[in-house]
Design goal:
single chain, Arc Repressor Mutant, subunit A, Oxidized Rhodanese, domain 1, five-stranded parallel beta sheet, three-stranded antiparallel beta sheet, 10 strands
Length: 219
């Protein structure tokens, strides 16, 4: 193999990965799998995809060596092949925030239609947690909470929040988080809490970013 053939082969393999990333449904799947392994049925339930379509997208991601499959009992679970996949998706997302005005415009337009709320950074939240100045709630589905969550966070899925307000004290600040900066469950939770007399903020990022930063987690 010549040097030129070697480089061409490498670029070809890399292009398979970039092609796999060039689809909004597959990016959504990567965002979901960043929460932990999941079967195709769970992915279908938490996206707009049918089981058949979700399976097709997973096969593309698997062929591109971005996800892998493991059998557990009667189910096949898919997971990111390594943390590098999440880092690549995170870098692509951050590139969009930094350089694509349409991305920021869409997010700003969506949030402008709801009540204003405050964001809190990872470092600010960690400081408040160390001084017991905050209650942290994980508003993702309970299945994702069990796979891993911010240390001492309470599991209160966004869809159940209205039933469980009595578990929270109005005397202490509440911080809600979900899957990441594009996950809107935390937005809805914070808006609902603020309307009901709580002082609530949204964590700027989600659980995967918190975990990747080496901050306290448990499962």
């Amino acid at each position: 193999m010549t040097a030129r053939e070697f480089k061409t082969a490498i670029y070809k393999e890399m292009s398979e990965m970039t092609k796999a990333l060039g689809n909004p449904h597959r990016l959504e799947i990567l965002d979901l799998l960043a929460q932990g392994p999941a079967p195709v049925e769970y992915i279908s339930k938490n996206t707009t995809l049918s089981v058949a379509n979700a399976s097709q997208h997973l096969q593309v991601l698997k062929h591109a060596k971005l996800v892998k499959a493991e059998r557990k009992g009667k189910y096949i679970y898919y997971k990111l092949i390594s943390v590098d996949v999440f880092n690549a998706w995170s870098a692509l997302r951050n590139l969009g925030f930094a350089n694509n005005g349409e991305v920021n415009s869409l997010l700003k337009d969506y949030r402008s239609k709801s009540e204003e709320f405050e964001m809190i950074s990872k470092s600010e939240l960690l400081e408040k947690m160390e001084h017991d100045d905050v209650v942290v709630i994980d508003v993702r589905p309970e299945d994702e909470y069990r796979k891993g969550h911010i240390k001492r966070a309470l599991s209160i899925p966004e869809k159940n929040l209205h039933e469980r307000l009595e578990e929270l004290s109005g005397d202490i600040e509440v911080v809600a988080y979900c899957r990441g900066p594009l996950c809107l469950m935390a937005d809805e939770a914070v808006n609902y809490l603020n309307k009901n007399g709580f002082k609530a903020k949204r964590l700027e990022y989600g659980f995967p970013e918190w975990q990747e930063s080496g901050l306290p987690v448990e499962s």
